[in-house]
Amino acid sequence: MSTEHSTEKRILMAMRKTLARVVRDLTPHATATSYPLTEGTVEDIKKCFDLIAARERELMQAAGVENQDRPHFIDEERTTNVVKISGLKKQDGV
To answer: Does residue 90 lie in a domain region?
Structure first.
């Protein structure tokens, strides 16, 4: 990946993380009765997240990287089996 794309990737990551922190900081606690952001602002924030994600996908495709990460539900059946390395024994002569 070129340094230009690397810089852009770092900028996008910083923007996404900062925007997420702002939203987290502004989200009221369970006892609060009002939300400080208007519906329009919430929609604009969602659009920003969508644009950031779309550009990140474009950069990955341009670099020839295929993203296999997908969100999973906690009750979704697992398709992998995790094996602990600590449970493996060393074979003689290997």
So the answer is: no
Average pLDDT over residues 45-67: 89
Number of folded domains that form the chain: 1
CA–CA separation, 62 and 31 (whole Å) = 46
Q: Chain-centre distance of CA 37, in angstroms? A: 23
- Among the listed residues 69, 44, 67, 60, the one whose alpha carbon sits nearest the alpha carbon of residue 12: 60
Asked whether residue 58 is domain-assigned, the answer is yes
State residue 10's pLDDT score.
Answer: 93
Task: Determine, yes or no, domain membership for 68.
Answer: no
Residue located via tokens 């900062």: 18
CB distance 28 to 79 below 8 Å:
no
